Amino acid sequence: MYDLAERRRAVALVSQGHSLNAVSRMTGVSRSAIRDWCVRIEPLRPGPVCTGRASGPAYAYLLGLYLGDGCISRRRRGGYALRIACGDAWPGLIDACEEAVRAVRPGNSVCRVRTPGCTMVTSWSNHWPCLFPQHGPGRKHERPIALEPWQQEVVDEHPWDFVRGLIHSDGSRVVNRTTRTVAGQPKRYAYPRYFFTNVSADIRRLCTDTLDALGVAWRQSNASNISVARKESVALMDRFIGPKY
To answer: 188 φ, ψ to 5°?
Structure first.
């Protein structure tokens, strides 16, 4: 978290006529955080969690989506906007995301905002920071990410929905194809596998801890990439996750 002096310095630079991009370069703070500080400079204080904490498979799924491709921003007129970025290549994912948002906050409106190649599923509520306390200034991989105990209880109760949200946001199911010579004849083989890619070590750990609990074998193929390739584990993922659609 940035202290009040750092926030005031950034806001002062904006008031002097510097653009958000310029101030971001000078301070190392994200544009979105600086924009929020221009509206509210005081750090957000932890408040009581909404009455009836979010629970159920819809919240577990939405939590996975939020950790991958979601953000929360403060509106100038008050309240907060939750935005989940969904690729237009998967219209079923967009529908599933909207359904989850409506299930978690049935009293709030939901809309779709089109951008090139992407649809932002958006909803406004004063309670989004309560439901997603991982919200904070800067990018997720630049700050610690951990689940609150009540969130972990939801994940423990609905682990496949949580993993499905993570895969639908920052994951994929691919098929690797190769040709081998057997008894002098070429044979083609197909190896399906799942990937989850996120530069936040904390979010990758949330994914792998849940996979461990589910009995899914995985390995880290590079600095930010988790791979599930064993046949029995892929079959398990296919049963509960499947490819994006």
So the answer is: -100, 140
202: domain range? 165-240
Name the domain count of the chain: 3
The Cβ-side half-sphere exposure at 166, using a 13 Å CA radius, reads 28
Instruction: Return the pLDDT at 223.
Output: 85
pLDDT at 49: 45
Residues 6 or more apart whose CB falls under 8 angstroms from that of 196 comprise 166, 167, 170, 171, 204, 207, 225, 226
**Is 110 contained in some domain?**
yes
Say if 70 falls within a structural domain.
Answer: yes
155 belongs to a structural domain:
no
Look up residue 105 and give its amino acid: R
* SS3 at position 55: coil
Does residue 95 form part of some domain? yes
Assigned token pair, 104: 């978690």
Residue 72 sits in the same domain as residue 23: no
| Residue in the structure block whose two tokens are 């991958």 | 68
Please tell me the pTM assigned to this model.
Answer: 0.76
Task: Kindly state the average pLDDT of the residues 192-218.
Answer: 96
Query: What is the number of helices (H) and of strands (E) in the chain?
Result: 10, 8
